Ferritin
Amino acid sequence: MALKISPAFSSILASRAGDNNLFPSVSSTSNSVLRLKTGSSPSALVCRAANDKPLTGVVFQPFEEVKKELDLVPTTPNASLARHKFVDDCEAAINEQINVEYNVSYVYHAMYAYFDRDNVALKGLAKFFKESSVEEREHAEKLMEYQNKRGGKVKLQSILMPLSEFDHAEKGDALYGMSLISTFWAIWVEACTFSA
């Protein structure tokens, strides 16, 4: 960081250059900037005022030093600062997976609500589906965090309404509910292997 002194003060500093009791390793240069030397190369810039008089005319220009770095920052308001080598297809696939996770969470939550009813009263299945719903929602949230860290945009779609009744005349409630989940997972695994 450089502090430049106006030319009006260069004569004051030049006359004081020999007086080095406060700054013994200070040298004055022709452009009125004092450089503090350690060893053979200057490591810091110092400016001092004559006596206790306030020093005016000092120009502070911090942006000149970081101008190269500032040129790398995008100026458009919608451009992400974090997006680097993040392909649009990858962003779309992550958004699709976020929506799948939310849909699965919603289905599990509906099954939890069904099995927790007083007339069904399968508390173990209700607990399993509630925990599964929370787990799937956490997956979606982790994917959303990742999408935001990489500079992508999360695009949520509408969630499909799940079934609310899982009673079956032949299979019964529990077997029918678990067979639906088994079928659901088979379809999901097939979709994942097909897209890969």
User: Anything to note?
Assistant: Strands lie at 3-4, 26-28, 34-38, 41-46, 59-60. Residues 19-32 have pLDDT under 50 and may be disordered. The helical segments are 10-15, 62-65, 67-71, 88-115, 123-149, 173-195. The longest helix spans residues 88-115.
